[in-house]
Each structure stands twice: as structure tokens, then as C-alpha cells.
Write a structure and sequence with these properties.
229 residues; alpha+beta; globular
């Protein structure tokens, strides 16, 4: 009988300790413990960024000598000329930033050249844009054309469509659509690691500065395939 009472008492103590432990961990520790991000919300957030990658938009305000026009329906069908010096607010996909820019460009079709210098402040651009170095071309004086870097046709892939216009002391605009990013957005819904078109984001050297390579794109949700350095 005594043995049975001891067993029952032990069970009661065990249950009590378990309950106390549960209360000790319960509300406070649940709030303190880091919550795992929801895979569903992460998935749709990545798809949203993939969609934004299709569009690039820059709003500009130039100085008294800024006159620039550029129209483009792929690299083969394009024409433009002019120069721009001023401030831009840029949205390259989900990246955003405010920066100073100096630009000279001219030509037609595949005979198109552009040189650019940009001066950015890390506080003025998003962390993702800084990581990718999307608003690149750091120069001390954006009016000094001798310091501009060859911009490889604006660092735009050959298939992009868009245009830009700038006038003295007038608001300007630069807009672009990337059909390859649209295809990548559709393919991204499968979310299969390594199955993306075109190749993942990586950087190349441009006069000592690591900049985004033409044709490479962000694989949101598959950042392990990207090369930032």
C-alpha cells in the first residue's frame, strides 16, 4: 500500500513540475524566442520582388544645360543624344536610391555610346541596392566628364525597352521594361532551386569597381546562387 502511495505521489509531483515548467516557458519565452518566418509569406514576398524587377523608373532634375533624349526598342532599334547633370531618384526593381549623376550619351542602333558618373551616399540608397552596387559609378565631381566610366550602353541588356528625356531645370524621366525579367517572374513561381532564366546575379569589374553584369538577374528566394563579391 505504501509503495502504491509513493508511486501516486511521484506521478503527482511529476505532473506538477511539468505544469510549472510549461507555465515558466509559456507566454514570456514564446514572445522572447525568435519566430521562424512563414514560408508562405516569404514565397509571395520573393515573387513580388521578381515582379518589380521587370520595371525600372528614374525621376530626374537636371541643371541649366541638361538636354537628353533616348528612345529604345531593344539595342538594335534605338537612338539618342545629349548630356545630363543633376539629381535622380531611382527605382531599379525593388531597389531604390537618391544620387547625383552626370551622363553623356549619343548614337543609334548598335552604335550607341554612353559614359556616366554617379555620386551616392549609403544613407540615400537601400541596403539591397548598396549590396548589389546597383547605383554605381562613384566620382567626386559628376560634372567632370574625364572621370566618367564607360557605361556599356547604359549597362542595359540588349533586349530592354525604354526611354529617357531631360530638359534644363525641368523634371525628367527615365523608364525601362525588361522582358527577360518578365519571363524570369513566370518561371520563378515553380521555385525550383537552380531552375531560373536568365543566369543569376553576379558582378564584373568595371575600371576597378564591381558592378552588376549585363544579363544577370536577381533570383529572389534563391540568393544562395547569387554572387555579390
Amino acid at each position: 500500500m505504501r509503495r502504491k502511495l509513493l508511486i501516486v505521489a511521484a506521478l503527482v509531483v511529476a505532473v506538477g513540475l511539468t505544469a510549472l515548467a510549461g507555465e515558466a516557458v509559456a507566454p514570456d519565452d514564446e514572445e522572447a524566442a525568435p519566430r521562424r518566418p512563414c514560408p508562405v509569406s516569404q514565397y509571395f514576398a520573393a515573387r513580388g520582388k521578381d515582379f518589380l524587377d521587370i520595371f525600372n523608373l528614374k525621376l530626374a532634375l537636371g541643371d541649366g544645360k541638361s538636354i537628353l533624349f533616348h528612345g529604345r526598342a531593344t539595342r538594335i532599334a534605338q537612338i539618342g543624344f545629349g548630356r545630363f547633370v543633376g539629381t535622380k531618384v531611382g527605382f531599379d526593381g525593388p531597389c531604390a536610391g537618391i544620387y547625383g549623376e552626370g551622363r553623356v550619351e549619343y548614337g543609334f542602333s548598335i552604335f550607341y555610346w554612353s559614359w556616366i558618373g554617379r555620386k551616392t551616399n549609403p544613407d540615400g540608397i537601400t541596403a539591397d541596392a548598396q549590396k548589389r552596387n546597383w547605383f554605381f559609378g562613384h566620382v567626386d565631381d559628376i560634372k567632370d566628364t574625364s572621370k566618367f566610366k564607360e557605361f556599356y550602353d547604359g549597362n542595359r541588356p540588349w533586349h530592354t525597352v525604354g526611354g529617357s528625356i531631360a530638359l534644363p531645370f525641368m523634371p525628367g524621366i527615365e523608364a525601362e521594361l525588361n522582358p527577360a525579367e518578365a519571363i524570369d517572374f513566370l518561371v520563378s513561381w515553380a521555385n525550383i532551386p537552380g531552375l531560373r532564366v536568365p543566369p543569376p546575379f553576379f558582378k564584373v569589374d568595371n575600371m576597378g569597381e564591381r558592378i552588376p553584369a549585363q544579363g544577370s538577374m536577381r533570383w529572389h528566394g534563391q540568393e544562395a546562387f547569387e554572387q555579390y563579391e
